[in-house]
Amino acid sequence: MKTRCGRVGLCAAAASVFAIAEAQGGAFGVRQQSAYGHGASFAGVAAGGSLSSMFWNPATLVDVEGLEIEVTGAGVFADAEVALDPQPALGLPGSDEGDIAEPALVPSGYVAYRLSPGAALGVGINAPFGLTTEYDGNSILSRSGVAGKSEILSVNLNPALALEVTDSLALAIGVQIQYFDARLTRQALGPLGVSTLEGDDVGVGLTAGIRIRPVEGTQVGLGYRSFIDHKLDGRLETSTAGVFDVDYDGVNLPDIVTLGVRQRITDRFRVMVGAEWSNWSRFDAVEIEGGPAPIDLPFEYDDGWFFALGAEFDVLPQASVRAGVGYELSPIGDDVRDYRLPYNDGFTFALGASYRHNERFAFDLGYSFLSVEDADIRAAGAGGPEANGPFSGHADAHAHYLSAAIKLRL
Question: Under CATH, domain 8-409 is a member of which superfamily?
Answer without folding.
Answer: Outer membrane protein transport protein (OMPP1/FadL/TodX) (2.40.160.60)
